Amino acid sequence: MVVDKTYINALSIEQAHSEAIKCTSGFRYIAGGTDVIVNKFQGNDNAEILIDLTGINELKQVVTKENNIEIGALVRLDDLKNYKVIIDNFPALLEAANSVASPVIRKTATLGGNLLCENRCIFYNQTEWWRESAGHCLKCNGNVCIASGGNKNCFAKFVSDTAVVLISMNASIEVFADNKISVIPIEDIYSGDGITPLKLSKTAIVKSIHIPLNNEYKSVFKKLRQRETLEFSSMTTAVTINKTGKLKIVLGAVHAKPIVYNGNITDDFNEILNALISNTRIIDNDVYSRAYRKEMITVFLQRSFKELSLLK
Question: What's residue 120's pLDDT?
Fold first, then answer.
């Protein structure tokens, strides 16, 4: 069935999903639009139909259920600071959200949108004219990765700031897909493929983000970028410990997916560092050099461990 509309205002998850299934041409869900619209202007997103989710009120709620806080996917980044349960339990999430772009953008951008934002590369996130002049890369139907020179893998970097912190706190997402609901650990939705970075089906809708309560998390978030506004991450770290001594570290913007380490506070720092760095895939697709970004992993983790009293 061909849909002759270019903009659909959905009032329920079921309606949005149903409309998406009808689309024989490209479509895109839109909420804050701070990522989608920019990509459309640059010619990096050619979806003919936009399905607007902002009329779905159940995606805008923050509730506490049993041992979890559930944050609706359409809660805006700037609004997270208005919830006492988040302020008291997850200050690192607020810090990560506050590091995204500029104050104006954070008043529009949503938490779910930040988790699903497109992977980035300095050779891809340019105007269509620029890409045509420089040569199309693997991510835009070319036959070579301009950053690495290879012709098999795209390493466009994973840049969600909030995902790094949420993964470190064992958060999950609730997803509506194929007329059923699933709860999936956030780290499991990323593929590691820069061209198709998400494992979710195209018609899937993220309903909410679930974070466990009562774990007494202590987290440190750090982000490398040239300017405190506008810039996407060049390298991000989140280090979290809980009341039982479990340690979880997540790196962002050093691979096409987040790099995760699970361990204990007694683990040797150098072994942790080697395990993390050996799994990164840093290439020169950023304003900072590959060598500098790799060096800053050690710097950020040392600082984070000291702030958590794990290193002297």
Answer: 96
